[in-house]
Amino acid sequence: MWNIYIVGYMGSGKTSLGRQLAQQLQIPCIDLDCQIEQVQNQSISAIFEQHGEIYFRELERAALLQSFETDRTIISTGGGAPIYKNNMQLMNEEGITIYLNADTQTLFNRLKYGKAKRPILANLNDEELLQFIDKHLNPRKPIYETAQLQLDASLPLPLLCVKVNAFLCAM
């Protein structure tokens, strides 16, 4: 019938929203990054280190394409997944897309305390982190904004779920 694809920048809350919605709707939830780590038996950071970003993006695309074979599943994508090739267009065609829109300051506040878990951010000071977010977020926004539903990621998780459920009911 349909899948729900949650997109947005890292730290926007994709995984948290996906888990909460899956629990409420009583359907499965897949985190693409976790799925890749399980299949590859390696962390995302190890895949990046050993094979590079292009290799990772191909693994991510394969996992995304495989998700099209599922039904009534919530898929939390990585922040870069919609940007690669025509992934966002495919998600829009194959399911319902939700963009968790977070501004630079919100993302900074969320990411600065969890930098150690994200090797790409681990060695950045506060100013560098802000610059990094701006550099990567701004070019991605136009692609993220093609999602069928856009939500303010700074809203509390229960309110985000209410908004998604209202959207689904109106379809």
Summarize the topology.
Elements lengths: L3 E4 L6 H12 L3 E3 H9 L3 H8 L1 H15 L6 E3 L10 H8 L1 E6 L2 H8 L14 H19 L4 E4 L4 H14 L1
Parallel strand pairs: 1-3, 1-4, 2-3, 4-5
Keywords, please?
Rossmann fold; alpha/beta; 8 helices; 171 residues; globular
- Integer-rounded radius of gyration: 15 Å
Total number of beta strands: 5
Shape by Cα distribution: globular
Q: What is the correct CATH architecture?
A: 3-Layer(aba) Sandwich
How are the strands of the largest sheet arranged?
2-3-1-4-5
Structural class determined from secondary elements: alpha/beta
**Individual helix count:** 8
What would CATH call the class?
Answer: Alpha Beta
Amino-to-carboxy terminus distance? 13 Å
What would you note in describing this structure?
The chain is built from eight helices and five strands; from the N terminus they run βαβαααβαβααβα. It has 171 residues and is an alpha/beta fold. It has one domain: P-loop containing nucleotide triphosphate hydrolases (Rossmann fold). Strands 2-3-1-4-5 form a five-stranded parallel β-sheet, with helices on both faces. 30% of the residues are buried.
